[in-house]
Amino acid sequence: MNTHTPNIKGERPEIRQLDDAAANRIAAGEVVERPSSAVKELVENSLDAGATRIDIAYADGGKTLIRVSDDGIGIPEDQLHLALSRHATSKIDGTDLLNISSFGFRGEALPSLGAVGRLTISSRGFETDHASEITVNGGDIGPIKPVARSKGTTVELNDLFHATPARLKFLRTDRAEAQAITDVIKRLAMSEPYVGFTLRDVSGGGQGRVTFRADAQSGDLFDAVLGRLRSILGTEFAENSVALDFQREGLSLHGYASLPTYSRGAAIGQYLFVNGRPVKDRLLLGAVRGAYSDYLSRDRHPVVALFIECDPTLVDVNVHPAKAEVRFRDPAGARSLIVSGLRHALSTAGHRASSTVADATIGAFQPEARPTAPVYQMDQRSRPTMVPPVSSPVQSGFADVQTEYSGRVEPVIATVELEDVADKPLGAARAQLHENYIIAQTPDGLVIVDQHAAHERLVYEKLKNQMAANGVASQALLLPEVVDLSENERLVLIDVLDELAKFGLVIEEFGGNAVCVRETPAILGEVNAQALVRDICDELTDQTTTKVVADKIEAILSRVACHGSIRSGRQMRAEEMNALLREMEATPHSGQCNHGRPTYVELKLADIERLFGRT
Ligand code: ADP
Ligand code: MG
Question: Which among 110, 153, 156 is the best mutation to test ligand 1's pocket, defined by most ligand atoms within 8 Å of the CB?
Answer without folding.
Answer: 110
